[in-house]
Amino acid sequence: MVSRVIPVDPFDLVVFGGTGDLARRKILPALFRRFCAGQMGANARVIGAARADMDDAGYRSFVSDAIAEFDPDAARHKDHLDSFLANVSYVVLDAKGDAGWDKLAATVQKGRVHAYYFSVGPGLFGDLAQRLHTYGMADANSRIVVEKPFGHDLASARDLNRVLAQHFDEHQVYRIDHYLGKETVQNLMAVRFGNMLFEPLWNSQYVDHIQITVAESVGVGGRGDYYDRAGAMRDMMQNHLMQLLCLIAMEPPAKFDPDAVRDEKLKVIRALDPVAPDNVVRGQYEADGDAPDYRTQVETPDSRTESFVALKAHISNWRWAGTPFYLRTGKRLKDRASEIAVVFKEAPHSIFGAEAGRHRNILTIKLQPNEGIELGVTIKEPGPGGMRLLDVPLDMTFAEALGEDGPDFPDAYERLIMDVIRGNQTLFMRGDEVEAAWQWADPVIQVWEEGGETPIPYASGSAGPDDALMLMHRDGRRWREIKA
Ligand code: NAD
């Protein structure tokens, strides 16, 4: 099934850092795909702006190469390429100086939506915001898009918010968390709030616990220097896993509108208890066969940065008191697999006797590598031989029902960029949410940093340190297998 496409208004999108890795791998291919889908009109323009000395023709060839490499459907879309490139241009520009800004101001067309994608390090956000203002490009039609990391801690996140707020209102600032752009994450909200079936059970009376896993099989690769200054808690837990936890735990918003949703998410973060040190496990991967040791991939040979973190979180409110949330994320794990599992309690009494075993319903929201929602239900094992129970997954993605080849949905970056143009902030983090998440994460990190704590080594290709398994075992529970 081809998703229904509603074209957006004409726009100019300036990609600051338009020659960088993120632009090449994600932003430019995403724009091209929306162009091919007919969502981005023929008059929408993409303007790359970066330091590299390049002319329009050079940039078009850069964009064309990026599409060939990172749009999986590039061959199918090749007839659209020339018309897309016709509206791509480039300005050589220095975020920290005045070079290029007059030209950019003359290029951007008045009277249409202007989106400025800050695909540069956060150290340049203030410079860009200020120059957009100075050169007359920060008006009511403009939006800025900022990438992670949004701050390194609470103080730096506050500084960033303050710097951006000097020239842009909150409703013009789009803080990207690409996990929120995933089809399934939105489907989670549809399942929760569009059905009567789940919400009455969605609380500590019926939910035993919730597990959120974001496992990567790759190591830090070429991002070692950045990663070593961040670690798994800052790079993944404070933002991506926290956002997923919010969507699972929040109260039903009155409307599906940006502030209503974000108000509810903020309440969840504020209701989180501080994490006790014995409820957190941090690890660092070791060499295994051809896979190198973490410490050989970063600049600091005795680095104490964690490449894995697992923790148990509690939300102190009426809905969730007593239901633990177990969160884990790490690199060089067994598989690339991300999922949320809502594990319901067992039925209070089994009428089928001890041999039938104990069964639980589990709602699994799979995010990576393939997206989907499954509800594990218990049925009778078909055939003769008495009453034997069997757990089977009920596929709630209904891909077959939606079309023979499965749905053709935009990926997270495609959806989020179009939301920026439409002016819909529902799937973007608000400044106060980001600050509240740092307020929760900072004390955990401080304990490690002040105590000089060394992460526990774990074998590459494993499920992380054994202590992380113990985090659940000691509560009589088990992590789900990390499996793509
Ligand atoms: P990169 O180093 O590959 O690219 C940086 C870009 O910024 C280049 O185009 C460079 O020319 C430009 N630039 C640097 N200094 C400049 C200046 N003074 N004036 C004008 N342009 C300047 O970085 P990246 O990997 O593309 O990351 C960009 C941002 O996105 C960073 O904040 C990063 O943390 C974030 N991010 C990246 C990824 C990723 O997968 N690459 C993922 C998530 C978030």
UniProtKB/TrEMBL annotation:
This is Glucose-6-phosphate 1-dehydrogenase. SUPFAM superfamilies: Glyceraldehyde-3-phosphate dehydrogenase-like, C-terminal domain, NAD(P)-binding Rossmann-fold domains. Keywords: Carbohydrate metabolism, Glucose metabolism, NADP, Oxidoreductase. The keyword Isomerase does not apply. Belongs to the glucose-6-phosphate dehydrogenase family. NADP(+) binds at residues 17-24, 51, 148. GO terms for cellular component: cytosol. The gene is zwf. Residues 14-187 form the Glucose-6-phosphate dehydrogenase NAD-binding domain. Pathway: Carbohydrate degradation; pentose phosphate pathway; D-ribulose 5-phosphate from D-glucose 6-phosphate (oxidative stage): step 1/3. One of its GO terms (molecular function) is glucose-6-phosphate dehydrogenase activity. Pfam families: G6PD_C, G6PD_N. It is an enzyme of class 1 (oxidoreductase). The active site is at 240 (proton acceptor). Its EC number is 1.1.1.49. Catalyzes the oxidation of glucose 6-phosphate to 6-phosphogluconolactone. It catalyses: D-glucose 6-phosphate + NADP(+) = 6-phospho-D-glucono-1,5-lactone + NADPH + H(+). GO terms for biological process: glucose metabolic process; pentose-phosphate shunt, oxidative branch. Substrate binds at residues 178, 182, 216, 235, 331. Gene3D superfamilies: Dihydrodipicolinate Reductase, domain 2 (3.30.360.10), NAD(P)-binding Rossmann-like Domain (3.40.50.720). Residues 189-480 form the Glucose-6-phosphate dehydrogenase C-terminal domain. InterPro entries: G6P_DH (IPR001282), G6P_DH_AS (IPR019796), G6P_DH_C (IPR022675), G6P_DH_NAD-bd (IPR022674), NAD(P)-bd_dom_sf (IPR036291).
